[in-house]
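ok, trying the design again with the full structure, not the truncated one.
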């Protein structure tokens, strides 16, 4: 079992210290969240809370996850990083390929690319991208980014993106893994078809078991049942040694946790207390 530290809503000046501590404790990776901005009025429900409200405010700290990965990679040597998840829909795939390739190079290929579409129409429209056809456009974006990161001179002529031969160097020394987020059947199909893994938002154990079963069906349908596939999970009702063993038995390969939350320490709590929580978690469960 892998254990990953989630750092959503953490003050930015703590990130490099927490990365070093996580590495010292033996965590496998750090999950990097993504939020572009806080709109005063949201036109769509946030899909991962019961009432559709956001769990953060206009003053909650966020950092661009690719910049965070580069910064934390500079002060560590082993621990890995992955976006969980970066919202592709409002971005440009050619520019993203440059950024992802740069982070892979600067971290010594310790970077995984967790991707999703994005839930807020404002993030699309205010970044100059239409909300309509977002799923089809993201599918093509994934193809474009993988093509460019594969190295060499490449070209692409698709429905949404079109370019003649280009090359970005250096290409990653090994393929950047793609982890696909989303709980809908369309998202699960995307994960099974093009992903090296699936990554969850907050989910109950019973729902998770159903998702894993569906992913297995879909991967068999796409002829990928025997290929390695990560299941990265934020499970909200299974904890401790027995709970983590149950998750592993269900097929989870990577538990995403925020250790200090179990000790009643808020996101803006003392840095030293968060470090101690990571040490306790590692000693008790890893």
């Amino acid at each position: 079992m892998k254990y990953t530290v989630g750092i959503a809503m953490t003050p930015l000046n703590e990130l490099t210290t927490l990365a070093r501590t996580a590495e010292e404790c033996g965590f496998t990776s750090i999950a990097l969240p993504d939020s572009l901005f806080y709109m005063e009025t949201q036109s769509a429900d946030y899909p991962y809370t019961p009432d559709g409200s956001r769990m953060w405010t206009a003053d909650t700290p966020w950092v661009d996850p690719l910049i965070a990965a580069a910064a934390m990679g500079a002060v560590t040597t082993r621990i890995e990083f992955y976006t969980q998840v970066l919202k592709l829909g409002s971005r440009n795939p050619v520019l993203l390929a440059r950024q992802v390739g740069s982070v892979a190079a600067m971290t010594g290929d310790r970077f995984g690319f967790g991707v999703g579409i994005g839930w807020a129409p404002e993030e699309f429209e205010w970044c100059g991208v239409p909300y309509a056809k977002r799923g089809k456009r993201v599918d093509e974006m994934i193809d474009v980014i993988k093509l460019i990161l594969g190295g060499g001179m490449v070209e692409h002529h698709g429905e949404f993106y079109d370019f003649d031969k280009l090359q970005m160097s250096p290409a990653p020394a090994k393929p950047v893994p793609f982890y696909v987020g989303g709980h809908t059947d369309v998202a699960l199909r995307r994960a099974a078809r093009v992903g090296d893994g699936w990554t969850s938002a907050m989910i109950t154990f019973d729902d998770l078991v159903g998702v894993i079963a569906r992913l297995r069906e879909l991967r068999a349908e796409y002829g990928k049942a025997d290929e390695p596939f990560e299941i990265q999970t934020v499970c909200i009702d299974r904890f401790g040694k027995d709970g983590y063993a149950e998750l592993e038995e269900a097929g989870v390969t990577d538990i995403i946790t925020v250790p200090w939350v179990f000790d009643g320490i808020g996101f803006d709590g003392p840095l030293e207390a968060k470090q101690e929580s990571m040490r306790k978690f590692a000693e008790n469960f890893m």
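Keeping the full-length input from now on. The first strand starts at residue 2 and ends at 6.
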